[in-house]
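User: Now give one protein:

AI:
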Amino acid sequence: MFAIRRIDHVAVCVPDVDAALARWRDLFGLEARDRGVSDELRTEAALLPLGESHIELVSPHGENAGLARFLEKRGPGLHHVALEVEGLDGALALLRAIGVPLVDVTPRIGARGHRVAFMHPRATGGVLVELIERRSTRSSPGEEAP
């Protein structure tokens, strides 16, 4: 198998990131550490640090049929679990070799510049799983590593 390092984040799909941020701040005192738009994934997302992991508030940005359909069908709610892995290419090759259905056969660039790929929910009994390979954690002097 491949090495899973940790749960990177749990994603909650929301129609409005600003409104959701206010709600999570008011309820739990959580503040966004990272926030941005991914043109490749067509999402807007904000990460709320929680220990070694995060809650990700994610919303469609532009033409993101998957998230828009999710919101239309289910409303706001738990969208996916993201696992940080070592060697994403190897993990995907292994999963493909054993017949695991994948949404992404090759990685793409996700939030925070990390390489990501999604497994199809059929593979895990209905749970959408994102596999993440963190970008290099080296940083310049005086900068915090991602």
